[in-house]
């Protein structure tokens, strides 16, 4: 796999790969009670967790498993993350508490969904969202995702058991 730095520009965003210069930002963004509650990320998310996460993200890209990109408007200041699992077609996103309310998640989700369909060649792109995560459901709907009739997946993480509903983005019509 060609390992040139990946940068995606669309919808007023520049999504870029995380670098070692972002360790403090990763910690700031991910060491948040909402993030701890809704994700399997370490909590507290300290400097050591940030280093492990960055290493895992870079390794996953090298192995063509996942792409983790910082959400920015200027290519510099990270305000969140969007990731694409290249195996399952699943997308995840986090926006830091200080940056919520700017439609960053919806714009990043649209950008990554377009990349997944048009560049990565994925015909199935999904989100897995808890039924009571209304902000994430609003993001999914605004980016064109639809709730499927797939049986919810029950997950136990950090002593909490919850269901994940599957949302799917329709594959673009083929041109012929």
Could you characterize what this model shows?
By secondary structure, the protein is α+β, with helices and mostly antiparallel strands. It is 31% helix and 28% strand. The protein contains 5 helices and 9 strands, in the order E-E-H-H-H-E-E-E-H-E-H-E-E-E. The chain has helices at 23-30, 33-38, 47-62, 104-118, 134-142; strands at 7-10, 13-17, 66-72, 80-85, 91-95, 125-129, 146-147, 153-157, 160-169. The protein has a 5-stranded antiparallel β-sheet with strand order 1-2-3-4-5, sandwiched between helices. Strands 6, 7, 8 and 9 form a 4-stranded antiparallel β-sheet that branches. Strand 4 and strand 5 form a beta hairpin. It is globular, with a radius of gyration of 16 Å. The mean pLDDT is 94.
Give the tags.
single chain, 176 residues, alpha+beta, five-stranded antiparallel sheet, four-stranded antiparallel sheet, 5 helices, 9 strands, globular, GNAT_dom, GNAT family N-acetyltransferase
Mind telling me the C-alpha Rg? Answer: 16 Å
- Label the structural class: alpha+beta
Helix content: 25-40%
**Side-by-side strand order of the widest sheet:** 1-2-3-4-5
Please give the largest β-sheet: 5 strands, antiparallel
Mean pLDDT: 94
Overall geometry comes to globular
How would you name the oligomeric state of the polypeptide chains in this document? Answer: single chain
Order of helices and strands: EEHHHEEEHEHEEE
Give the end-to-end Cα distance, rounded to a whole number of Å.
Answer: 29 Å
Protein name: GNAT family N-acetyltransferase
Domain N-acetyltransferase: 13-168
Organism: Streptomyces violaceus
